[in-house]
Here is the input.
Amino acid sequence: MSIMNEMRMDFLARPENEAFARMVISAFMLPTNPTLEQLGDVKTAVSEAVTNAIVHAYHGNGGTVRMRAVLDSDLMLTVDIVDNGCGIEDIEQARQPFYSSDPGLERSGMGFTVMESFMDEVKVFSQRGRGTMVRMCKSLAAEMPVAQRA
Here is the structure.
């Protein structure tokens, strides 16, 4: 396996940048000729991860979110969403459906559940007071014709 393409960008943890992140990951995926379903799945998962960083990591007080995407020669897409916010105290609890660290925000508590349902693999790494990285992987290989693979 070798890297076919890679990108990284940092953006302010502002609500309007969630849509920006969705568009960037879409553009990054386009050379693989993804299905509409694959495109929608990845955009939705990225949206959830970025929204979690904006809302929970920084509590609306600003900060930076990093999105890194790698596409390897096996057409495995890996997307990391990284923040330097408050971190997650209990990752297993946070991954439970309907759990919210801030119930007053009227959030559904389904962010990680949505990410897991749309991606092949989701890993969460976090340190309290240092931030969180959500790593999401999705295989795009099944849809790309062999002749197009580099």
Residues 36-57 form the longest helix (22 residues).
